[in-house]
Amino acid sequence: SKEISDQSIRLSRINGKTKEFEVPKKLRDRQKINDKQIVALAKYADKIQKHYYFPQDMEWALEKDKLFIVQTRPVTTIAQTAKSEKTEKNSNVKFAEAPILAGAAASPGIGTGTVRILKSPKEIDKIKKGDVLVAPMTSPDYVPAMKKSAAIITDEGGQTSHAAIVSRELGIPCVVGTKEATKLLKDGQIVTVNGQSGQVFMGAGVKKTEEEKALTTKLKHSKTKTATKVYVNLGQPDRAAEIYRYSSQRSDQKKRAGRIYYQAFPRPADFL
Fold this sequence. Notes:
Layout: E1 9-14, E2 17-22, H1 35-52, E3 56-63, E4 66-74, H2 78-90, E5 101-102, E6 104-107, E7 110-117, E8 132-135, H3 143-148, E9 151-154, H4 162-170, E10 174-176, H5 181-184, E11 190-194, E12 199-202, H6 210-221, H7 237-246, H8 252-264
Parallel strand pairs: 7-8, 8-9, 9-10
Antiparallel strand pairs: 1-2, 3-4, 5-12, 6-10, 7-11, 11-12
């Protein structure tokens, strides 16, 4: 069976700039690539998974009827997802009312918080720790706000969208493709998001078992093991400053992290 997501926005490259356009309503729910291309992608995915010995999150592009694999990385949340599914079935989680929204289940878990609607990345400062982020869709510019969120809801997207992939990496419950979350929900409302079933409920009428509470904590704080110790992520320069400022015993690696931060963010006096 096929799952075709509704697509209301398309991006096009015009005169060297990427511009956003609205997709005509009659085209929004149409299949985007043909069956032959779907089969070809599936074969690529199978081959890449066998090469890396692990399931992959893949990004691809289609140009002049030719498919290109542009990026692939391991799926790091498979074990957590399986545990969440088991917990969901065995727990006594109950909701007081029928769901007010439904979409695609993108990241497992249950999160409750205050709704904050972001129409663009420029509004990410509205999000406080524990809020529920609601947006038309997300992009890398939303990540600082996503990290603070108790749950994420989007109007657009499917299980391979940016919101879905990042929320799974962060261990945050997420429901995507609701089509009308930004219209139905209001800032300040309390909602509960069930990322396993793809449903959103009004209020905090959820009863969690101790097992589920422990699982949620584990999902949020679990880290991927690496062969070398990670001192700082260059994608988060604010952490470099923190490490450099507060570490009493700086190793050579930590000192380098501090220098990287300094080079990336010079002092105002350096421009004089």
